Amino acid sequence: MNPRILVVFYSATGNTAAPASSAAEGARESGAEVRLRTVAETAPPQAIASNPRWQAHVDGGPHAELATLEDLEWADGLAVGSPTRFGGPAAQLKSFLDTTGGLWAQGKLADKVATSFTTASTAHGGLESTVLAINNVFYHWGAVVVPLGYAHPHLMDSGNPYGGSFVSRKSAAPDKEALDALRLRGNRLATLTGYVANGLRGRVSPPE
């Protein structure tokens, strides 16, 4: 069976939405069934209005369907992305992740294959700590965390080994190098998810 991949993200200005779309594209190239989802914008209007690019992105929406807990339960693997906010994921994404306690308690998030990605405006503004903070959620779920690594030559020049990332200097949009890295990320995620999911589906429970 083809793996089911969920790509869920929060993006204020579009810089995290673009890598999310690239990850989804890479997963589809591997034959996966893919859902691309965002999370609700919860920032107050005055905060959004203070940044013209943020306001324009909100006004130009919706950019994807809103993620649901059903999407998480459906998925065999997932890629989760957020802009970096003070060295961690944005509150909008964290709020969604904080609703997963019921699924976690039922064991429905265990053994999913998961990876993370981020964008930031500064090179040392917390890219790696944001990726690792998202991964902390996966550890609690009992998910199988897949790092970006350097599994493809392109990744030697395009990102850190923890997860996909892009530094948006002077509000620059993600470049081809970063988007290609996320496409490879989605492709590898789907491939490894297929191995895990099909193994679990074919598992025979031991006799009681």
TrEMBL record:
- Span of domain Flavodoxin-like: 5-190
Q: Which GO terms describe its cellular component?
A: membrane
Q: What is its EC number?
A: 1.6.5.2
> Does the keyword Oxidoreductase feature in the UniProt annotation?
yes
Which keywords appear in this protein's UniProt record, sorted alphabetically?
Answer: Oxidoreductase
NCBIfam families, alphabetized:
flav_wrbA, PRK03767.1
PANTHER family noted in UniProt: FLAVODOXIN-RELATED PROTEIN WRBA-RELATED, FLAVOPROTEIN-LIKE PROTEIN YCP4-RELATED
Protein name, as recorded: NAD(P)H:quinone oxidoreductase
Organism this protein belongs to: Amycolatopsis alkalitolerans
What gene does this protein come from?
wrbA
